[in-house]
Design goal:
This protein has 94 residues and is mainly α. The chain has helices at residues 2-23, 29-73. It is 71% helix and 0% strand.
Length: 94
Amino acid sequence: MRERERLRREQLQREADKALREAGLRLDQEKRELFEQRYLQERRRIERELRQEVEAKRHEQLPALQERLRREFQEPSPGVTSTSAPAASVTPKK
């Protein structure tokens, strides 16, 4: 678990460094640390918003999924026949 967290922090640090390079900024150590702090803060905000959006969409779609699965796996009741009639064969008249 600690290893995974360490790897995540390293990845975030690399991404913050990349964002700083891509911004074309040359900052002293103090401003660099502030940039990284702000980048990570905004990154967490974006990830939180995305998680909330995904959770809301999942919540919307779950009832339909549950209903489809219920119908798919529901065992037919005894004595109930299919309501669909077989297709009639049409032979052309000569």
